[in-house]
Every structure is written in C-alpha cells, then in structure tokens.
Amino acid sequence: MVNLLYDNTLAIFSLLHTGTTSNQGLDEKINDAFMPFAVWWENLILAEIPMFGQGIPLILIILIGGALFFTIYFGFVNVRHFPTAIQVVRGKYDELEKNPPKSKPQVYEVDGDLVDTIKDEGHLGEVNHFQALATAVSGTVGLGNIAMVAVAISIGGPGATFWMILAGLLGMSTKFVECTLGVKYRDIDKEGNVFGGPMYYLSKGIAQKGFSKLGKILAGLFAILCVGASFGGGNAFQSNQAAAQIIERFGLTGNATGSIIGAVFAILAGIVIIGGIKRIAKVTEKVVPFMAVLYVGAALFIIFSKIEWVDDAFALIFKSAFTPEATVSGGFVGVMIQGFRRAAFSNEAGAGSAAIAHSAVNTGYPASEGLVGLLEPFIDTVLVCTMTAIVIILFNMDGVFAYGNVIEGQALLNDGSRLGGVNITSMAFESSINGSSWILMLAVCLFAFSTILSWSYYGLQAWKYLFGRSRVMDLTYKIVYLMFTVLGAAITLDAVIKFSDAMILALVFPNMIGLLILFPYVKKEFINYKELIFKKQN
C-alpha cells in the first residue's frame, strides 16, 4: 500500500510539473496517475466473500447483519416507536427533555482528562430536533437518490427496489443506535459549542469499557477517513455533478465555465458554513423541505398520472425480487445485493456521519435524538429512493431498455444508445412531464448544495478532533473545503471520486465495531427516555 501510494504521489507531482507540455489535459493525467491507487482502495473496501454462488461485499454483510441485530435487540424500535419519533420531531417533549435525570456521573479518562471536567452540563446543545434531522437528511438525501437508484434498477431490475426498501427499514435501527451514542458521549464547551460524533463515542465509550487504546485507534481512523470523505464524496463530487447538469441544461461552453459555477457554489456555501452548525441548521431546515416538496411532488404527480399502472409496478417489484428478469445477472442474490448496496450507500446507516449532526441537538436525553435519527433512512430510502424507482419502472413499462443489459454502468436502450445514472431519471421525468428535466436540474443543485453544507460540518468536527479546536484550525479547514468545491466543479477526476466514495463506506468499519461494543448503553438511555414519555402520557 505504502509503495503504491508513494509511486502514484511522485507521478502526480511529476505531472503537475510537466502537465501543460502534453496534448493530454492535466486533469486526465492526474486521473490516470491516481487511478491504480483508487482502484486498489475501492477493491479493498468492497472486498467480496463468496456466498450463494455470488461475491457479496463484506461491508454489506456487516451493515445488514448489524442492522438486523439492532432491530431485534431493541424490539423493532424502527416500527413500534416510529410514531414516537414523529412526536419528538414535532417538539412534544421538548420542555421535559431540558431537565435530564440526576444521576451519579460516570467518571473515566480520555487523553488524561476526566470527561466530567471537560463537559459543561450547563448547556444541552445548539439546535432543536427538527433542525438536527434536517441537517442530517440534507447530508444523506442527495444525488444518489436520483442517479444511483437508476443504476441499481437498470442492473438489478425492479426487484432491487424491494431489497432497497427492506435495507432502509433495517437501517433505521442502526441510525437509532449511533445517534443515541452521538448525544451521550458528546463534548460541550463553556460557550455551548458541541463536539460530537463517532470520534467521541469511540474514544470515550470504548475507554469506559476498559479498552482505551482501541477506542483511540478507531476514533482516529474514523476522523481521518471522515475528513477525506468530506473533501471528496461529500463536496467535490456534489459540485461536479451539479455543474455538469447546469452546463448540459443551458448548453454552456468554455474552459472556465465549471470554475465559475464552482466559485458560485463555494461563495454560497461559505456564507453558510462560516456561521457554524446553527446557521447550517437554519438553512437546511428551509432547503430540505423545499427540495423534498419539489422532487417528491414531481414524482408523485407522475405516479398519480399513471395510477392505473402503479399496481402493476408494485407487482413487478415483488415478483422480480425473488424471480429476477432473465437478463439480470446474478439471479435472486444479484438482485438482493443491488438493492442492499443502493440503500447502504444512500442512507449511510452504519457510517456514523449523521451522528455528528444529531450530536448538536438541544436535549438532555440521548435516546430522544436516537428516535429522531431513525427517521432518516425512512425519508431517504423508503420514501425518496422508492419514488425514484417507481417513476423509472413506470417509464420502462413499454420496454425502453432491458433490465440487466448494462455496459459500463449505462443501460443499453433499444435504439442502441446508452443512458446512465441521472440521465435515466431525467428521461423518465421528461416522458411524463414536459420540461420536468429542468425541475430535476434544480433538484440536483439543491441536493448537491445541501449535501455540501452538511458534510462541511461532518468534516470540520473530524478535523477539530485531529488538530484541535482553535479558530485557526476552524478557518483552515473551511478554506480548504471551499477550494475543493471549486475544484470539483472545474475538473473531472474519476479516480479521486472513486477513492472518496470508498472512504465514506470505509467509515463503516471503525463505526460498526463501536456500535457492537456500546449498544448496551443505548438500551439504558432508551429505558430512561421511555420512562419520561410514560410520565408525560400519564
């Protein structure tokens, strides 16, 4: 690994020195130089284990297996307490939550400091439940809900939708666990600023179990991966895809077009992220409902306009989930993998990133935010991804393309042309509503912008964990982050994007280890919160 990274780094610096002397563009040269390491990293993170005649990614087994365990252990909290989660978001228990129960503090050391001397109990958080949910949802509901759902269906057929929904429902339980831990082990300084997320519950929580060194290693690994993921998949990829949509829709030309669009995104994002989580929350609580109404509204219009075909679409989903289309490779297991993989990539349940945003909530009961967190996969996967899937299936009722007939990730249409990702979704929308591709472009831009905002906060928290909480470190990260916003829109580096997306998935390994060690503490917090609710109701 070290030699491969070293060799490619030397190659990249060499290209930066000589890149302008060749006919090949500098971005293409960097891409080619970095690709071997990017492919190696992606293959490592998505390493497969042979099962049922198919190669199943180990990370997928960990995610689904962990989610199933948490669902059973917590008594199907994702279903039984779904109404309670809605009530918490609405603020029904806000006043009660501001008076947490008095109990003997658990004293344990982190980096030589007593945790109870670090945390200021005079502050309970920075944002309300809805703002925390909106910020976290804005980080998960993104381009994957539009583009990658189309890829999953074109490869795995309509049946992939069934497994996608199932994985989303199970992922709700994982989000409940990680968001509860995020609040339980957060730090709050004297000014009321919150520092939370997997870095803290991995280091503090596992230290409480008596494995301080393991906790520090896992926390540091998570923080490093999180910073890298924020620059790439959470930022550069988003601005790149948004810029591509704007350029295509408006027919823009010129070498500087992408840079200009990226600069506009960076300026708008900078105005928001410089203000910290409170300003991010205020923006996302307005942007998220708007983009949800915009995109979901258009999808529902299409679905209701073809209501006579909806029952056939659902019948096809259930049938194809267990008896796939003949052209779909991998059979039943292949379709299941496509659905699970799409859900895992989309809602990030198990990656721990959303726990960073949820940690900032103003509450004295960690389990209350755990309940709020479980709504995320439902919104992201069960609702938004499923609506996208239904629209695409309805569009393809006449057989515009054959499911499973895919070349390099693109569906092969009957006329011989190829269509992939967001373009499949765009065509599906346009076929039902003339001009709706413009709505889709706006939705892509909003999804990209909101994701950039949320991941700026995730990456900043990880950065501060690694380098300290000074204003200099704060400003340094934000400047570098905004530079990646411009860079992502200006150039196309497939290898860097491939590497960054794999880094987001890599977060699962340290995070899930922590969840499987610390889940008993979640049980205690859940019992405390249920007692609070019981008193309220009686």
Automatic annotation (TrEMBL):
Topological relation to the membrane, as annotated: Multi-pass membrane protein
Major location category of this protein: membrane
Membrane spanning stretches: 56-76, 146-166, 217-237, 257-275, 287-307, 378-397, 438-458, 479-497, 503-522
UniProt keyword list: Cell membrane, Membrane, Symport, Transmembrane, Transmembrane helix, Transport
InterPro entries: Na/Ala_symport
Pfam families from the UniProt entry: Na_Ala_symp
Subcellular location(s) of the protein: Cell membrane
Any one annotated GO CC term: plasma membrane
GO molecular function, one term: amino acid:sodium symporter activity
Family statement drawn from the similarity comment of this UniProt entry: Belongs to the alanine or glycine:cation symporter (AGCS) (TC 2.A.25) family.
PANTHER family: AGSS FAMILY TRANSPORTER, SODIUM-ALANINE, TRANSCRIPTIONAL REGULATOR, LRP FAMILY
Protein name per UniProt: Alanine:cation symporter family protein
